[in-house]
Amino acid sequence: MRKHVLTSLFLLLTMSAFAGVNVTSPANSSTVGSPVNFAANATTSCPSGIATMGIYPSPYQLAYVGTGGWFTTSLALEQGTYNVVVVAWDHCGGAESAAITLTVKNGQNAVYVSSPGNNSTANSPVNFAATATTTCGAGVASIGVYTAPYQLAFVTGGASLNTSLPLSPGTYHAVVEEWDRCGGAATTPVTINVPSGQTLWNVQAQGGWSSYAQQPPTYSDCSGCTPSGPGTTWAEYQGLHSPSIDGNATQFNLGGTLPYSDVLFNNHLIGDFSSYGLPDSNHTLVPTLHNFTYDVYFYGSNLGGAQALEFDINQFFDGMGFTWGHECRIAGGNEWDVWDNLNAKWVPTGIACNPVNNSWNHLTLQVQRTSDNHLLYQSITFNGVTHTLNQYYSPFSAPGWWGITVNYQMDGNYQETPYTVYLDKLNFSYQ
After folding, report:
1. Are residues 186 and 225 located together in one domain of the fold?
2. What is the CATH number of the domain that holds 186?
């Protein structure tokens, strides 16, 4: 399978350009109450860093400006729909922006839940994010989450919440409720499914990552290639605070001179060479696992420079290999493809893949190894929209390997355009 390449360290050090502006609150296309909480950060290769950041709720209306590369602030906005632009200016004279659309509703008792999505599948801990409005002149007193009737799992003062709750496997008919200072209240129900099994958290920040260039025409792992070339250059940096969702993102860069060359990043999670201390030397765990979820956030400011981004789950035992390959084909049609193991080819799904620049994109992949040892592609959930696949394929021959691994791959385009992608909150669940 083709794998994609990262921007060289040389380019990162010599180019004076933004890595992007990341708006973490409010979510794009969300509905919120006023005042609206804004949070954003920005990065640049300018040696002197970010000078200022600002918020334009409408054209030419600079409603907020602050110094440095991040901010949190609240703005009182009238009811309506806003095409907001957040801008960052660096000390080298550069500027970059990110745009979001949001709807503000005031003058009513209401709760707006932006996470999790209703009728969605969410791994534990489940992130709950919501805002509330009220007709009460004294405002909203508090807002909380009921995970079951009479079970108030979380409550906080004010008109917004953003928290993660550990939940056991099962289906939850949760309710987010607000209470105002006039004795009023409003609720919004949210039904979620928490899958069973175990979860390995923040795989992007874990040790054990390996990387390999894959070059045309064979696209096999290049034993003579190093991150400095020849032909393909790449780099990886862990523990980044910006851009990041939780302060622990990993940056992947692709570049070089050889068109259409790729880089594969791979981590052995369970079994042979396990990075999580799960060697399964007696082969009693890996053959029992059938259901897998790959959940990740990714961010890039030049995603159009990629040929494709690839996210894979692999299982090996008893001489069989199962690779659930998912490729967001950016060049050539913006479409999700899946990997046919036996025939070694990509198969278009007809599902659009249009990742958003300068924003965190959320991807959840659910797959299964069936009881008769076939690969089942179950669903792709991308930026809140779930597509059911239910496509079956046969495994391939892979003698001598026992284990479960994950891949992240970057593919270079016809110019081998350099680009950077950040991964965060890469969680892997297995059952």
Report:
1. no
2. 2.60.40
Within 8 A by CB and 6+ apart from 165, the residues are: 124, 125, 126, 128, 145, 147, 153, 154
Q: Do 139 and 276 fall within a single domain?
A: no
Structure tokens at 357: 């620049």
Given a cut of 90, whether residue 350 has pLDDT beyond it is yes
- The mean pLDDT of 213-240, rounded to a whole number, is 93
**Rounded to two decimals, what is the model's pTM?**
0.60
For residues 242 and 300, state if they share a domain: yes
Separation of alpha carbons 413 and 38, rounded Å: 36
Q: Are residues 240 and 349 in the same domain?
A: yes
Write out the residue range of the structural domain in which residue 343 sits.
Answer: 199-430
Residue 404 binned pLDDT confidence (cut-offs 50, 70, 90): very high
Q: Which of 5-19, 81-95, 194-208 is predicted least confidently?
A: 5-19
Residues 6+ apart with CB under 8 A from 168: 124, 194
**Number of domains composing the chain:** 3
The larger pLDDT score, comparing residue 50 to residue 403, is at: 403
Per-residue pLDDT tens for 304-345? 999 999 999 999 999 999 999 999 999 988 999 999 999 999
Q: What is the pLDDT of residues 113-122, one digit of tens each?
A: 878 888 887 7
For residues 86 and 154, membership in a common domain is answered with: no
- 72 and 166, same domain (yes or no): no
Could you tell me if 362 and 227 lie in one domain? Answer: yes
The CATH number covering residue 389 comes to 2.60.120.200
Rounded CA-CA distance 102/84 in Å is 8
Pick the last residue of a domain from 194, 212, 234: 194
